[in-house]
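Reopening: structure tokens for the 5-phosphoarabinonic acid complex, inputs below.
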Amino acid sequence: MPESKIALYYKNVSASVIGDEHGITDEQFKELAQKTLPAIAECNKQRKEGVIPYRDLPYNEDYPKAVKAVAEEIKSGDCENFVVLGIGGSALGNIALQTALNPYMYNMDENQRKGPRLFVFDNVDPMQLGSFLSWIGDKLDKTIFNVISKSGRTAETAAQFLVIRQLLLEKLGKDGFAKQVVAVTDAKAGTMRKIADDSKLRTLVVPDGVGGRFSVLSPVGLLSAAICGIDIDAMLAGARQMDERCSKEDFFANPAAINAAINWHYYNRQKPISVMMPYAYALKDLSDWYRQIWAESLGKTHNRQGDEVFVGPTPVKAIGTTDQHSQVQLYREGPNDKLFTFLQVKEFEQDVTIGANPQVAPELGYLSGQKMSKLLNSEKLATEYALLHDKRPCLTVLFDRIDASTIGEFIYLFEVTTSIAGVLFDIDAYNQPAVELGKEATFALMGREDFSELVEKIEPFARIDDTFLA
Ligand code: PA5
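Re-run output (same inputs, fresh job):
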């Protein structure tokens, strides 16, 4: 087994560091272990029974094989641009992998990239898409569009797809359309499957029983990653390695269990906000991926017995060091209602040395000749120190390095953390019933006949009441 390369450091939530009022005492840690052991066992049992198939994605050999075959075929052609159309779980993982594992200037500098440019559209903003369409118009034959939708009925993805489909049909004809599109969708059912089969599109599958937010290690996230030169085998190996740790029915040896238990503990002790604060540009979009898996999985009206509980921690993204100059004032002096999770990198693949200070500014001399990585990590420690000074609990996910393996580990760690937290909160972590009403209201407002009765209900809210216009 390769040596593990990420670790959860949790000393700074302990009472020995931040005191008994806000910290976790040894006794409470023991109680948390007792409470969480059955939750680990329950997740392991669900996995064995096939209830949570995302757990086995890192072991599946067919998906990476199929992904690599499509990626090879695309890369052997004339593909300069790869465009993902998707939203939520069908986009956030793709964005996170690209930011984490490819250089900042990837799209701009062909010397820095091992694949086509990547664009991910996870919205229906007319100006954003309009600008892109003005640019892509004469490059369509060198562009592959990867539409990702399990259902095919998601309004945003469907709208983007219909725009691109029409454009491709007009410019390149039916065969061109089929050639330039790869669909990732349900194996058998759904609107996108119907379209893909009818138009003879290349397809890869969204595995059965795997919800969008748990799907990044399936073809949903793997195809764009593989096309852009990310080592998907190493990423899956990292996830497998983390699986071994997260399956252990030994609380103190299981980072997902500790992570879930600490989060659950603080939620029940007036700290319902979970701030994830990466100190690395590459890790910043993992926070968006985390926000989705945490919010959609754990925010629920009912518990598993059907009682109303209105439960759910609120995930917040903050960026180190940027948000030190925006949020930290609140984090230190505002209500002590947050648990902080820092992401810290020990060794950066690239470093930059800070230049000499001008003679007129000797006060900047302390910076000159120092490594930028040292400044970044010093600022992380400084911020953590300041928060601890004010008795704010802090966790750190420590990355030895940012590479495909550690990113695979991180993803799997937070997926299993979410599952175990779901059991601790006693809710169904795998549904998202509250997303439906907004989707249906959109259908109604956009004129779908089968949702027309909703229009009347929405109408009073659509009318602007002048009394309240300031
Ligand atoms: O996590 C989820 O299940 C959602 O975010 C979905 O991924 C999102 O709604 C997109 O759904 P679909 O893939 O059916 O277009």
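The mean pLDDT is 96. Residues 266 and 406 are 27 Å apart (CA to CA). Marking as resolved unless the reporter disagrees.
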